[in-house]
Design a protein that fits this description.
Blueprint lengths: L1 H33 L5 E14 L9 E13 L5 E18 L2 E22 L4 E23 L2 E7 L9 E13 L2 E10 L7 E12 L1
Antiparallel strand pairs: 1-2, 1-9, 2-3, 3-4, 4-5, 5-6, 5-7, 7-8, 8-9
Length: about 210
């Protein structure tokens, strides 16, 4: 009788262990299924301080514009590095004024950043510094050159009348941002490599973002 009871107890113990293993595997599978994607999508937008740089840009000043992008960041290692892409709308141009005379130029464009590489350094679980470097291409779809004197417009031209203005641009983005949970404050310098009027695009982007 004792042998039968011992054998029954051993069988019950084995069955209990097996059920526990199966249950643990089931919980692990469910947890893995509930894990969010590693790819982080985000929206980012804000202010663009626009100007031109290079030969012929000495007499040009700055002008305020905008930049809005939709993109993603995908980790490429466990140490914080990632790669990403962005698509959005932006502006470029310049402006200057003196003794009541004001001149400004602004072009609106579609921008694509086909490749960005970055590194996120976590200060805490919720706060991270984000350094990034990438490339962009853009196309100006509309724009205007305007002259004003004492507040009245005295001359203007559409983008199609700018004989030496090149609508295509390509260059680099280099910047650093601060993440707090899903929210982001980003500072990026954008430098164009294609000359227009012997000048290059020079933009400073100050943008707020949110990830989802």
């Amino acid at each position: 009788m004792k042998k039968l009871l011992s054998l029954a107890a051993a069988c019950l113990l084995c069955a209990g262990m097996q059920a526990q293993i199966v249950s643990s595997r089931s919980v692990s599978i469910k947890s893995a299924q509930k894990q969010p994607s590693e790819t982080q999508w985000f929206l980012r937008g804000g202010l663009n301080i626009m100007k031109l740089t290079g030969d012929g840009a000495e007499d040009t000043g700055s002008k305020l514009g905008y930049n809005f992008v939709y993109g993603f960041q995908k980790p490429i290692s466990t140490v914080g590095t990632y790669w990403g892409m962005e698509f959005g709308l932006g502006s470029r141009g310049w402006g200057d004024s003196e003794d009541g005379y004001k001149v400004s130029q602004m072009a609106h464009n579609v921008q694509v950043s086909p490749f960005t590489i970055g590194y996120k350094y976590n200060i805490t679980d919720a706060v991270a510094i984000d350094a990034h470097l990438g490339a962009y291409v853009s196309f100006d779809y509309v724009g205007k050159y305007k002259e004003e004197e004492d507040g009245e417009e005295v001359g203007s031209a559409s983008i199609g009348d700018w004989e030496d203005w090149k609508r295509f641009d390509a260059g680099m983005n280099i910047g650093v941002g601060l993440w707090y949970s899903r929210f982001n404050l980003d500072f990026t310098y954008q430098r164009g490599f294609i000359k227009t009027w012997e000048c290059n695009t020079s933009n400073v982007l100050i943008r707020l973002g949110v990830a989802f």
